[in-house]
Design brief:
This protein is of the alpha/beta class. The chain is about 30% helix and about 20% strand. Among the domains are: about 100 residues, 2-Layer Sandwich (Alpha-Beta Plaits); about 100 residues, 3-Layer(aba) Sandwich (Oxidized Rhodanese, domain 1).
């Protein structure tokens, strides 16, 4: 009988992953739709993904699916058909392919059942999550952001925004998406009659965020189809200028994808220009922070002298 979750240590899986020569492609997708028998749906997806050596992170809830996965190139078409045939709502679903991908993104397959595919904290039962903003593609985005009546809103976490964002975009500083949704209504109250373009990495947060804005009386609400990934892919395909500067943070082994050569952040230790995130080597700290190569040597990949001393002792 197939075990429907991973039983091998993450250290061993990582070792296998790093030594594998199998070409892989990293993709992401999401969809809000109603799932009735959630456990059955989850187990069916797991068995099929496992069979074709899919790795990555998938969240499933009654409201839909949110996935970031890595697929062996030779099985991509098969897995794509599996995704689209798993529910009629997923037919012709938009797939975001990683922008700068060498396949080294995940080494574990994890499919979890969640309360929400993105935690939003919304409790108002009259809220309609399907009444979303208007989709924009790269040409429309580029045209609209030149208009002084347009505001760009970055709906990602601050540490994502820090290493890369659209020129002139504002970020609603918070620790969670749940907090952002509560803060953004007051923060943008002055702009109720302006054009507001919202964006995130792949688009999933903005599905909820634009609907939330409309629910609170904002009129001219837009979001970028496919998020930053969709925008950059479409702009490159059509030889359009790209107004996103720096790197795009990603939640996998790579940690970021370079969009432009601009470095807009600094090493948090020496304050030189740097945009590379790392986790503190002291396992009890594991803080995510920006560190240049020089400081990684000086501090032994730690965020402070205190943490460095603890791993040396």
């Amino acid at each position: 009988m197939l075990i429907l979750h991973n039983r091998i240590s993450k250290a061993e899986l990582k070792k296998r992953f790093l030594f594998s020569q199998q070409p892989r492609i990293t993709i992401s997708f999401y969809k809000y739709f109603n799932i009735v028998n959630i456990q059955k749906y989850r187990d069916n997806i797991y068995k099929k993904f496992f069979k074709y050596h899919v790795l990555g992170r998938v969240y499933i809830a009654n409201e839909g699916i949110n996935a970031q996965i890595s697929i062996p190139v030779k099985f991509y078409d098969i897995v794509n058909k599996i995704i689209q045939s798993s529910n009629s709502s997923l037919k012709n679903i938009r797939i975001n392919k990683a922008l700068n991908d060498i396949g080294q993104s995940f080494w574990v397959l994890s499919i979890k059942i969640k309360k929400n595919i993105v935690a939003d904290g919304i409790k108002n039962t009259t809220f309609d999550p399907y009444d979303t903003g208007i989709y924009l593609q790269a040409p429309e985005v580029n045209a609209m952001i030149k208009n002084s009546n347009t505001i760009l809103v970055d709906m990602r976490n601050y540490y994502e925004y820090k290493i890369g964002h659209f020129e002139g975009a504002i970020n609603i500083k918070s620790n969670t998406f749940r907090e952002q949704l509560q803060l953004i209504i007051k923060s943008l109250d002055y702009a109720k009659h302006k054009n507001i373009i919202m964006y995130c990495t792949g688009g999933i947060r903005c599905e909820k965020a634009t609907a939330w804005m409309k629910f609170h009386g904002f009129k001219n609400i837009y979001h970028i189809e496919g998020g930053i990934i969709g925008y950059v892919s479409h702009a490159k395909k059509n030889n359009l200028p790209i107004f996103f500067k720096g790197k795009m943070f990603v939640f996998d082994y790579r940690m970021s994808e370079k969009i432009s050569h601009d470095v807009i952040s600094k090493c948090q230790q020496c304050h030189r220009k740097e945009d590379t995130y790392t986790n503190c080597a002291h396992h009890k700290c594991h803080r995510l922070f920006i560190q240049c190569h020089r400081c990684s040597i000086r501090f032994s990949n730690c965020c402070s002298i205190q943490c460095m001393n603890k791993i040396i002792i």
